[in-house]
Amino acid sequence: MVAAFQLAYTLFQPICGWLIDVIGLKMGFLICALIWSVTCLLHAGAGSWLHLALLRFVMGASEAAATPANAKAIGDWFPKKERPVAAGWAGVGFSIGAMLAPPIIYVAHITFGWQGAFLLTGGLGLLWVALWWWGYHSPESHPRLSDEERAFINQDNEAIGEKLPFFTRAESDW
């Protein structure tokens, strides 16, 4: 089960990064979080080890968006000189989540059974998807960001280059 999740997580990180680059952070991460949440809910109905392994694979593939989405959000929202500290605080958030998840899942499992633990986490994921849809804005479209704040964020950002298809091989002059 762990291998199914980890294999997908490993394979899909660059694919999720490409998706986020092509359709944008808000929609790319929303789609992956929605797939993750629905897949989590479906775990409660797994009828065999193969079914569970397939669900774990899909869950790993969709969760793989977290790392590239984090990098994209930091790149969008922070000037270069502040990005290392922002990445450090994001790592703190990941660690806190990793520490809080086991006791929450344990209580859900004891209270509602193993299926209930998956239903709880899937439901929380759907709540997060709704909050993300409603609350996330890029710096360019944020309704409460002043022009001065926007200029500070973008002070040393480079122009976005041409977006290439995922499997495009770069030509070399060597």
UniProtKB/TrEMBL annotation:
What Gene Ontology cellular component terms go with this record? Answer: membrane
Annotated ranges, domain Major facilitator superfamily (MFS) profile: 1-174
Keyword annotations of the record:
Membrane, Transmembrane, Transmembrane helix
**Main localization of the protein described in the UniProt heading:** membrane
Output the InterPro entries linked to this UniProt entry.
Answer: MFS, MFS_dom, MFS_Na/Anion_cotransporter, MFS_trans_sf
Compartments reported by the entry: Membrane
The answer to keyword rRNA-binding applying to this record is no
The transmembrane segments are: 27-50, 86-106, 112-134
Please tell me whether the keyword Membrane is annotated for this protein: yes
Signal peptide positions (record): none
Classify the protein's membrane topology as the record does: Multi-pass membrane protein
- GO MF: hexuronate transmembrane transporter activity
Family of this protein: Belongs to the major facilitator superfamily. Phthalate permease family.
Q: What is this protein called?
A: Hexuronate transporter
Q: Which organism is it from?
A: Enterobacter agglomerans (Erwinia herbicola)
Q: Corresponding gene?
A: exuT_3
